[in-house]
Amino acid sequence: MRECDSRIVLGLHRSRYERRILTNALDLGVDAIDTSFNYNGFSAHTALTAAGRGLLPHFKISTKVGFFPSVGRAEHSLDPDRLREAVEQSNRDLGRAPDLVFLHNPERSLTGSSEAAQDRLGTACAAVERAAAKGLCGGWGISSWDPRPLPGLVDTTLPRPDAVMVRAGLLTGIDVLEASEALVARWDLVPDQLWGMSPFGGSTTQPLWDELDPQVFIQEPHDGLSAVQATLRVAYWLPRVGRIAVGTDSPSHLGELVDALRYEADADNLSAYRRLLREQRDHQPL
Question: Which pLDDT score, from 0 to 100, does residue 95 have?
Fold first, then answer.
């Protein structure tokens, strides 16, 4: 068993919830799991408990609340009572308090005036913060697929989260990157409190990865480094995050990702890449 490394979190968005994935993760030093109340058709927590019987005490578990079952679909809500009930249900289904609960994609319900949106966000944050204070979770955070509306709503009146999770990697647009960094600055968070997700844009097999060479963003020497490994390593810099949630049902793939952590990113080339992204955006026709 390897020494634990907090920089990789096993994401269970599309997982088959198989025990072998959990045991392999522990063998590789991955002792953190990220899931959500609504994953696996709202059965992720019970599926994880069944697959991980006897193993879950060895993991730190983060989950998310914000989506709820409705007729034929999932609906999003920031209603504080529904959020509290979801955290309580998560405790029951997991058989323990999760180490971290993220408010899931709050931007989905932040329509209307900025004043109303800020009030709705603040009320939701306070609800999850109270859950943490009551021992229903070890801490709380915000997980946002599109953080662009959020920085303008954050001021000193809002509770300060323990962590924020955002998209990361080469396929993340410059507007999302800058919004993520602005959000971190607003809450005065350090890189270890910023988590990344979706470093491969949803898949490591899409044709784009045959055209893009992410190894140019890795310091020499990088002999033996695969494109998948380089892509993951670069994602820690776009934006600057302390850990990344990755999903896989393949033990060998997870091992490949863990091995990628021994390489270092080329900060100069990544700065140039970001400059190109900004220039491309700024020169787009209105």
Answer: 96
Q: What topology does CATH give the domain 8-282?
A: TIM Barrel (3.20.20)
Question: Based on C-alpha coordinates, what's the Rg of the chain?
Answer: 19
Whether the bond between 239 and the residue before it is cis, its omega within 30 degrees of 0, is yes
Q: Which phi and psi (to 5°) does residue 61 adopt?
A: -120, 125
Residue 1 makes CB contacts below 8 A (sequence gap 6+) with 26, 27, 29
Residue closest to 249 by CA, chosen among 204, 216, 188, 280: 204
Domain boundaries, the chain: 8-282
Q: Is the pLDDT of residue 204 over 60?
A: no
What token pair was written down for 59?
A: 């993991």
| pLDDT average, residue stretch 208-213 | 67
HEC-encoded secondary structure of the chain: CCCCCCCEEEECCCCCCCHHHHHHHHHCCCCEEECCCCHHHHCHHHHHHHHCCCCHHHCEEEEEECEEEECCEEEECCCHHHHHHHHHHHHHHHCCCCCEEEEECHHHHCCCCHHHHHHHHHHHHHHHHHHHHCCCCCCEEEEECCCCCCHHHCCCCCCCCCEEEEECCCCCCHHHHHHHHHHHHHHCCCHHHEEEECCCCCCCCCCHHHHCCHHHHECCCCCCCCHHHHHHHHHCECCECCEEEEECCCHHHHHHHHHHHHCCECHHHHHHHHHHHHHHHHCCCC
- C-alpha span between 222 and 285 (Å, rounded): 39
